[in-house]
Amino acid sequence: MSVIVGRNGKIAISTAGVTYYDLGKVVDGSLDISSDVADATTNDSGGWKEGEYADAQGALSVTMKYDSSNTGQKALIDEMCTNRAKVYFRFRPAEAAGELQWIFLATLDSVGVSMSTGDVEELSISGASSGAVACSAQ
Question: Which CATH class is domain 8-35+52-137?
Answer without folding.
Answer: mainly beta
